[in-house]
Amino acid sequence: MTAGRVWFVTGASRGLGRAFTEAALGVGDRVVGLARDVEPLAGLAGDRLLALPVDVTDRDAVLAAVEAAVERFGRLDIVVNNAGTLHMGMIEEFGEAEARAQMETNFFGALWVSQAVMPRLREQGSGHLVQVSSIGGLGGYPMTGMYSASKFALEGMSEALAMEAAPFGVKVTIVQPGGYWTDLYTRMRSAAPLPAYDGLRAELEKQWAEGSVDSEPRLAAEAVLKLVDSADPPLRLLLGSMVYDLAFDLSRRRMAIWEAWEAVSRAAEHAVPQPGS
């Protein structure tokens, strides 16, 4: 394990972000922690932690935070795009402002951070971006469709970024966590419900009441430490048995559907010369 690295963690004051921050400090690394409210970070690790009150949806503030980080610690090694929010509701129930707000933090916030750090990482010829997605990045589900949309967008952007960054020695990993005891659900917002969906909503609430037992965030942090210590990190890393099994189940079902419709898919393509050529 290499100590003395510099981490740049968004959403650092709570939940998984707090666990990542504590884990990094625990191995002797330095951390630049961004959060809208940095008061919970007070007293952690003294001068090895730079806590910056930044809303990642503010692109100029993110750019300034990267400059402050480099001025303080001289470099960046590990960037963890962790900041995220959850807005629950059926797709039809979302207003424009609510839909845009979900994308602003989960997708655009991560985009602004990625854009802000890439020049530094390219110049160094090294670095690792860890893009925190979700089980919602594996598939869309009732009530969390807009959340999944934001995570799908994050993953698509991150796949492209991984290929663009690789020639410069910069690595990118999409981390897909399952359930952890964070305040994501306690701080979530909900769209105004439409009566038409009352039946489906009641069924979902019944399923959630039966629920799952989530894990401690420190377990996710331990996995991320192993990830960033790897000389050959993966493009994707699943965190948890439930999300691991779900990923394989979804992939098998998608492949079965593609195979069942293979004849229609192949018949839809037949190369011809460009019209008018």
Helix-strand blueprint:
Layout: E1 6-10, H1 15-26, E2 30-35, E3 49-53, H2 59-73, E4 78-81, E5 87-88, H3 96-124, E6 128-132, H4 145-165, E7 171-177, E8 189-190, H5 198-210, H6 217-229, E9 236-239, H7 241-260, H8 262-267
Parallel strand pairs: 1-2, 1-4, 2-3, 4-6, 5-8, 6-7, 7-9
Describe this structure as you would to a colleague.
The chain is an alpha/beta fold and 277 residues long. It has a single domain (6-267), classed as 3-Layer(aba) Sandwich (Rossmann fold). The chain contains 8 helices and 9 strands. It has helices spanning 15-26, 59-73, 96-124, 145-165, 198-210, 217-229, 241-260, 262-267, and strands at 6-10, 30-35, 49-53, 78-81, 87-88, 128-132, 171-177, 189-190, 236-239. Strands 3-2-1-4-6-7-9 form a 7-stranded parallel β-sheet, with helices on both faces. Strand 6 (128-132), helix 4 (145-165) and strand 7 form a beta-alpha-beta unit. Helix 2 (59-73) packs parallel to helix 3 and helix 3 (96-124) packs parallel to helix 4.
